[in-house]
Amino acid sequence: MINEYVARKVATKDMQPCLICSKPTVTVLYNASGPDWLYTCDIHLHDNPQFAIPIHSIEYQEAVDKLRRLKLQVDKASVKNSNSWDGWVSHLFNKKPTKEDHNEEVSIENNEADEPEDVQKKYNQQLDLVANLQKKTRKYQLSDTTFNSRIERRKNQQRMLERRKKEQELYANTDPQELATQFTFPSVPNNPVSKS
Ligand SMILES: [Zn+2]
Q: What are the tens digits of pLDDT across the range 82-94?
């Protein structure tokens, strides 16, 4: 059995208790390789690495990487912005005509390259994309403890199933009449019916 479960929703009428809290839920984690399935409420599925860890798509991982880069740009831009503000303030105090042109050029270049509002906007958009992709994540890997208990449970079920099968075979191979004569039913003591 592979440790890969897909979250699915069942109809409200098919609700089952959550494995963790026993509250009825429509979310089921299904493992086709078992097959194995378990019910869990969404709150116990999300941000609960002790129970299950989401398996994210490559698309999601790439989006997170891009978000990280944009975050660095946002931080840089806000630092730069405050620097240029400081520069502008200090420029006011030390007005030297020879340096003025040069400083103006630099500040225009900076604004064109990293407009803080644009970087922030891009960052916010990327953040929305990451959040949406995160919502789309349906695959989960159970924590080792949980997965091992699933394997153990499966083994027990198989053992029980085999035992039941053997019992049924034993029963099926026995002639009903023979079975009836083999068993002597103990009579109930002081039974008024048998006495009369
Ligand atoms: Zn729960």
A: 655 555 555 555 5
